[in-house]
Amino acid sequence: MLEIVRLGLGNLRRHLLRSVLTALGIILGVAAVIANGGIGEGAKRQALEQLERLGAKNIIVRSQQPVDAQQSSSQRASFTNRYGLTRADLAVLQAEFADELDAVVPLKEVGGQIIRGAQRRVSQAYGTTPDFLRVANLRIATGRYLTQDDVEVSAMVCVIGAEVARLFFAPFEDPIGETIRIDSRTFKVIGVLEPVGFAGGKGAAQLGRDLNLDLHLPITTASETLGDVMYRFTSGNRSLTAVQISEVYLTVKDREQVLAYAELVRRVVEVRRPGMADVAMIVPYELLDQARKAAALWQTVLGAIAGISLLVGGIGIMNIMLASVTERTREIGIRRALGATRRHIVYQFLVETGVLSVIGGVIGVGVGIALTVFIGFFITRMARLPLIGSWFPSEVNLPTAVSFGSIVVAFIVATVTGVVFGLYPAIKAAAQDPIKALRHD
Hints:
By secondary structure, this protein is of the alpha+beta class. The protein has two domains: about 1-50 and about 290-440, no CATH class; about 60-250, no CATH class. The chain is about 55% helix and about 15% strand. A hairpin with a 2-residue loop joins strand 12 (about 230-235) and strand 13. The longest helix has about 45 residues, at about 285-325.
């Protein structure tokens, strides 16, 4: 066996350029599989991270304006639309689930505009409780969040999102201690939230807003100071709405129980609001499960496409080895005449194809990892390139992550492909008649 291995390696060394070109198909195939797997894994992680930030343990019950109410409000500007969850609905949800769940946190949207100096924006202010920071997976960048004392005394304080701080305050200005207005009411800024990564992504699409533009104040202050009626004037349209509770976050203790509790919450809400025309439910865990399945399907498709490269590499090995069999017919005849069996000839050719496959697989893994890292690094910097940078949006991003699973699968498939496609030439070489092989010129 050692002699067979020595002969196989010696032949590869004698035809080094041919060996490298033969292995190139395997190298590129393995690299393509790993790079595709890296792109798919990066996209999956980004999607899952965005949805995780919504809170995989949360069940969100939201007030939404019915379609017929939207049409009525566009025809009658003085008409006040009243819809959505009420304080009585919140009381029922708290009574039913407060003891079983980790938290039941209300949000109340208030105000028409957020104002500071000459800066004005449509209000995205919400009254809530201190638990919202935890259930929504938010973090404080500077200052502090709302406290129970703020809620009890209806304090005129607020916590602003990262984008609000950027829009309403100078780059090096500290918002803490400054004031900001919601309509005609003035609030003291006590904290700034860290940027929320999924702004504009799937999480924001499901919530219907960019959380970086949120402004939070005590829910008692929102109810007592700003009331239920909101007047808004945007792009020539004006609306007058009255919503007591905008959203309720119900946080389950165990993620595996989210879907069960979501069904219970749905039944409780439907009893009070048949048809749920003015109420919607968002269950991030369901979105998370869908994202996992979509990502798995996407990776399978990418892997299948990249696998074609491995197939082409295997065919390349078979073609070269068939040519080698013809070229070395006389050598095979001499070896058979000196006592080599058909099994020895098969082993000799399999050693050559196996070495090509293994070396190609190892090099391909290195190239694939480097390519994965390079793609993630290069794509985010394309907008800065001098000639082609203007062709790409500044926020272009293609996250990548090296997947250990794709490395293992690509290497094993490459090795097996090389051996399988080298098996036929090896058997063909061993099947030759020694006498005819010796006569071959």
